[in-house]
Amino acid sequence: MNNPFDDESGSYLVLTNAERQHSLWPADIDIPAGWSTVFGAATRAACLAHVEENWTDMRPASLVAATNGA
Predict the structure, then answer these.
(1) pLDDT one-digit tens code per residue, 1-49
(2) Which among 33, 34, 40, 42 is least surrounded, fewest beta carbons within 10 Å?
């Protein structure tokens, strides 16, 4: 069986968690607890473009808050 995360022709979602981290997720797999959909379902390329445009700070939100408060 092929890995659904590597399917170039598959349909994907972009997920985020409470730390504002992003994940590319196959649309036909259940979303894990703690994550929510912010984009898609769409092509893998469209989802990757969304992540590149919107996840500009790779640090978790808690680290950003701690750094800004220091």
Answers:
(1) 589 989 999 999 999 999 999 999 999 999 999 999 999 999 999 999 9
(2) 33
Query: Which domains occur in the chain, in start order?
Result: 8-69 (3.90.820.10)
Burial class (CB within 10 angstroms; exposed 0-12, middle 13-18, buried 19+) of 65: exposed
Q: How many CB atoms lie within 10 A of CB 47?
A: 24
Rounded Cα distance between 59 and 29, Å, is 26
Helix or strand or coil: residue 31?
coil
